[in-house]
């Protein structure tokens, strides 16, 4: 369990200022790898999102994006998956927005793929994982915020589709 905690801390402590496309491209695979690991861990330990098995030696701590003083601790891997889906969704959305400003159709197509990925992650959070996080108090992961992020991702997708077809 100590190695799991070390790997998780390396992935979740990533921070950056003024992200560029290159920087986002660098972090997306790291977070994707951790999400795959967390999903595999979830399956291996037979955690159920409604009746999660409690594992005492894993303490997962996340901080609110808008209020860093607000933290939430839980020892359920689905909480970690939920939070990683959010971070990954935000990175894909940001990448979609950056690519949508380019004039090349290939960049717009890549932007559409990123927007679809972001939409899927936000939708999955809202429809599958959200029930376990209703009372966390996090402002960035409340239900209406997730719906808004889904809509924005769809907007970027359709904007690119329009620009490719005109």
Mean pLDDT: 79
Q: Work out the strand percent.
A: under 5%
CATH architecture label: Alpha Horseshoe
Number of strands: 2
Which structural category fits the helices and strands? mainly alpha
At CATH level 3, the topology is Serine Threonine Protein Phosphatase 5, Tetratricopeptide repeat
Main sheet record: 2 strands, antiparallel
Number of domains: 1
Q: What is the oligomer described by this structure?
A: single chain
Quick structural overview:
With 166 residues, this protein is mainly alpha-helical.
Fold and architecture overview:
- The chain is mainly alpha-helical and 166 residues long.
- It has a single domain, classed as Alpha Horseshoe (Serine Threonine Protein Phosphatase 5, Tetratricopeptide repeat), CATH 1.25.40.
- It contains five helices and two strands.
- The chain has helices at 2-12, 21-44, 77-100, 105-129, 143-165, and strands at residues 60-63, 71-74.
- A hairpin with a 7-residue loop joins strand 1 (60-63) and strand 2 (71-74).
- Helix 4 runs antiparallel to helix 5 (143-165).
List keywords for this structure.
166 residues; mainly alpha; Serine Threonine Protein Phosphatase 5, Tetratricopeptide repeat; two-stranded antiparallel ribbon; 5 helices; 5% strand
Topology, please?
Layout: H1 2-12, H2 21-44, E1 60-63, E2 71-74, H3 77-100, H4 105-129, H5 143-165
Antiparallel strand pairs: 1-2
């Amino acid at each position: 369990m100590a190695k799991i905690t070390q790997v998780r801390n390396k992935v979740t402590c990533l921070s950056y200022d003024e992200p560029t496309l290159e920087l986002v491209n660098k972090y997306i695979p790291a977070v994707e790898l951790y999400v795959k690991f967390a999903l595999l861990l979830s399956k291996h330990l037979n955690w159920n999102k409604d009746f999660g098995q409690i594992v005492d030696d894993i303490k997962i701590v996340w901080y609110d994006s808008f209020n860093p003083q607000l933290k939430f601790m839980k020892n359920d891997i689905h909480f970690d998956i939920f939070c990683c889906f959010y971070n990954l969704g935000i990175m894909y959305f940001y990448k979609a927005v950056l690519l949508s400003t380019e004039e090349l159709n290939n960049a717009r197509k890549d932007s559409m793929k990123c927007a679809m990925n972001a939409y899927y992650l936000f939708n999955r959070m809202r429809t599958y994982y959200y029930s376990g996080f209703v009372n966390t108090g996090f402002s960035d992961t409340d239900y209406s915020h997730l719906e808004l992020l889904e809509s924005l991702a769809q907007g970027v997708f359709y904007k690119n589709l329009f620009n490719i077809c005109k």
